[in-house]
## 1
Amino acid sequence: MNISDVLLRPTITEKSTLLQEDGQYTFEVAPKANKTLVKQAVEENFNVKVLSVNITVNRGKRKRYGPRFKKRPDVKKAVVTLQQGDRINLIEGL
């Protein structure tokens, strides 16, 4: 897997914004990504030092469309903890 394909998008929610104050950033990552690949991708793309990576897989919910059920896709998220003093500017203009 290519390093540039690991990080899909940053997750910007109320909880993730509060985590940024403690130096933790959340990203949606590729389904086949592991902790080592996520660490390498963040360090290479943002020029920061990563201390730890925690990964969760949120299973997609079943939704009903008339008589049929469809499953939403699974989402893999990573919470990355940076070295104290390092920052990532996810939203331009702030």
## 2
Amino acid sequence: MIEFTIDPKSGVPFHRQLADQIRYGIATGQLEVGEQLPTVRALAVELSVNPNTISRVYRELEIRDILVTQQGTGTFVGPVAPTIPIKERQQKLRSICDELITQVSSYGFSIGELIEELAGRQGEER
């Protein structure tokens, strides 16, 4: 199970952040077929968002057959694994890099220092 987070400063709507985390979690194997997701209420409390936001995400992903809800049992990862288009993957990587560069710069490090640190970690599994 992955730990869901919401970043209110990102400018991305909460429902989009959560849907993306679920999709990426499945695509990367952090969420497996048949794995149960938190209840709407539990996740809403954990993330401090309106339960309607969580319901919207679950419904949206059910329509795409990514999630399956069984009445009285819960919401589970469905059998259809989402694929992430190359363009979307590139946009996500660009966004992550933008955030990282902003943080690195705010601490006075150069992009060269960042690249050197990342190169030193190449091949490490996290």
## 3
Amino acid sequence: MSIDALRTEICRVGHSLFERGYVHASAGNISVRLAEGRGFLITPTDACLGFLQPHTLAHVNAEGTQLSGERASKTLALHQRIYAAEPEAHCVIHTHATQLVALTLAGVWRADDIVPPITPYFVMKVGHVPLIPYHRPGDRAAADAVAAAIVAARARGVPIRAVMLERLGPNVWHDSPASAMAVLEELEETARLWLMTGRSASPLTEAQIDDLRRTFGARW
């Protein structure tokens, strides 16, 4: 995709998330890694994702120096660390998704998996999602913790596509804005189901999960 096409796609995804209630006010941000070492596009700081304009998106180089557009999101360092730690990531989306934030307030399933594998599509499309302890927005310590979680998951042979920042919201990544959005949607829906059942639904069995691994290549 050309840079202009990626700018348009970021705006489309931001508007879709806003219209469907996955983001609100000026919460959340989206970035895309550009090909051939041309840096990144990222939404401006304090921008509403529902009303983005392609020309206002910040273009930064690989070191984070701004080249054009409005001032980059204050979470730029976190996005950079995700891209550095995960070669497969080409788009990162962060939101303050209501059900997922509520889950961290009510209590996650466990620190290395915020929700249990209760549906096949969660296992297939999302996978393990570790909890990152609370840091203030923009804190570089959060970026360090997320990068460490990505590296640890790869070392275990089960790469992750998402982390959950306690009290703030999820960071998800994939090979395109549309694919990253789908991960976010599936993760938020699973949190909603888990809360609706009083956090008591039984996980899929190991045999059922192994079948998803063998049939669909699920990362679990």
